[in-house]
Amino acid sequence: MFQEPENYRPPTPEGKQVTYTRNPCSTQPDGPRTLTISLLGTHPLWGHHLWNAAKSFASYLDAHPDAVAGKTVLELGAAGALPSMVAAANRARLVAITDYPDPDLVDNIRQTAEANFPGELGTRIHVYGHRWGDDASELRALTATATFDVLILCDLVFNHSEHNGLLKSTRELLARNGRAFVFFTHHRPWLVDRDLEFLELARQQGMRVERLVEEYTGAMFEDDPGDERVRGTVHGFCLTFC
């Protein structure tokens, strides 16, 4: 049998920690000025990047802390979980952080939570694996209403095949008077219309869609094809029930 030569395959990149510095003009006086975000070395579900949409929403949240203060918050598809960390820093009453139920992704989020809010994992901050559209009993059990005041969806709508499941989880877990924040970038400019189908699907299922942000941040990947201006712009929306 053929035996691969030594060093035939490149080594798997090691994980890293990224320091996110919050805007001092928007930060609570007694809150953390920086947050430590753990990123995997590589992952097929993109948990190894700190996405521009997440950073844009984190900035938005620091400028609007009342959006989460004293509220229950759930993040779907969290990856590095920066928005959840900012929500916790802005005094959210409870923060539930989820991503696909892959041990590496979930453990990485737990590491981030423990690094920034030691001792609060399992009390104010909870981490679970959750596949969009699947049973969410564990998440429902975290709140008295079985729903959350705020949902966070950052850079998820490019998963076109998962729109139905993502919206199902959003509608089932969002409180009737709650708000779901949807921030994203069109990473593939030729598929803009496919990205936006998620918002249209939300409208069709009785949700109000409000634009909040359109911000140029620069493209995540310089060498990717397509209009750089399109790839480098973050769009932010808020979904509520009509």
Structure description:
There is one protein chain. By secondary structure, the chain is an alpha/beta fold. The protein is 27% helix and 27% strand. It contains seven helices and nine strands, in the order ββαβαβαβαβαβαβαβ. Strands 5-4-3-6-7-9-8 form a seven-stranded mixed sheet, with helices on both faces. Strands 1-2 form a two-stranded antiparallel ribbon. β3, α2 and β4 (94-99) form a beta-alpha-beta unit. α1 packs parallel to α2 (82-89). The termini are far apart.
What radius of gyration results from the CA coordinates?
A: 18 Å
Alpha carbon gap, first and last residue: 64 Å
Structural class: alpha/beta
Per DSSP, what share of the residues sits in E-state strands of 2 or more residues?
25-35%
Approximate shape: globular
Question: What percent of residues adopt helix (DSSP H or I)?
Answer: 25-40%
Quick check: average pLDDT?
Answer: 91
The number of distinct β-strands equals 9
Contiguous helical run count: 7
Unreliable runs, pLDDT <50, ≥5 residues? Answer: none
Strand order of the largest sheet: 5-4-3-6-7-9-8
Helix and strand pattern: EEHEHEHEHEHEHEHE
What is the makeup of the main sheet?
7 strands, mixed
How does the SSE layout of this entry go?
Elements: E1 16-21, E2 34-39, H1 52-63, E3 72-76, H2 82-89, E4 94-99, H3 103-116, E5 125-129, H4 137-140, E6 148-154, H5 163-173, E7 174-185, H6 192-204, E8 207-216, H7 228-231, E9 233-241
Parallel strand pairs: 3-4, 3-6, 4-5, 6-7
Antiparallel strand pairs: 1-2, 7-9, 8-9
Task: Compose a concise summary of this entry.
The chain is an alpha/beta fold.
